[in-house]
Amino acid sequence: MITFSNYVQAESLDEAYQLNQKKGNAVIGGMLWMKMQKKRYNTIIDLSKLNLNTIEETDEEFKIGCMVTLRDIEQHKSFNEYTCGAARESVRHIVGVQFRNVATVGGSIFGRYGFSDVLTLFMALDCCVELYKGGIVPIAEFANMKYDRDILIRLIVKKKPIKISYKSMRNTKTDFPTLTCAVSKYDGVMRAVIGARPMKAVVVEDKENIFGTCGYDEACSKFAEYVCGNVTTGSNLRAGAEYRKQLVKVLVERACGDIK
Amino acid sequence: MNITLKLNGKKISRDIEPDMLLIDFVRAEGCLSVKRGCETANCGLCTVFLNEKPVLSCSVLAARANGQSVTTLEGVGREAEEFAEFVADQGAEQCGFCNPGFVMNAVALFRENPDPSVDEIKEYLAGNLCRCSGYEGQLRGILNFLEWKKGGAK
Ligand SMILES: Cc1cc2nc3c(=O)[nH]c(=O)nc-3n(C[C@H](O)[C@H](O)[C@H](O)COP(=O)(O)OP(=O)(O)OC[C@H]3O[C@@H](n4cnc5c(N)ncnc54)[C@H](O)[C@@H]3O)c2cc1C
Ligand code: FES
Ligand code: FES
Question: pTM score, two decimals?
Answer without folding.
Answer: 0.97
